Amino acid sequence: MGAWRPGWLISARATCGQSKLETWLCRLATNEALQLEKAMSHLEPELRAVLLLKEQRGLSYQEIAESVAIPEGTVGSRLNRARKELRQELTKLGWD
User: Fold this and answer.
1) How far apart, in whole angstroms, are the C-alpha atoms of residue 64 and residue 75?
2) How far apart are CA 76 and CA 7, in angstroms?
3) How much is the pLDDT for 6?
4) Domains in the chain: how many in total?
């Protein structure tokens, strides 16, 4: 069995030269999104929720605090923890 390689690298090599650049870029982005989703799934639900409210919806700390009924300071600490754990999970998947 060969060495493990990140999924996006395998797909990128498989499509490179066989498809249009747009198709290759689309596949690369899709594979990275799938890896991000996998890494996010390892976060505790309360960390994932706060991170998604901030990064996906663009809510302020105050808006997040009101949405999930926690103090603003807790929003900040959960965001820091979520980002740290997400970075660790992505590193495990081969992201730099």
Assistant:
1) 7
2) 32
3) 47
4) 2
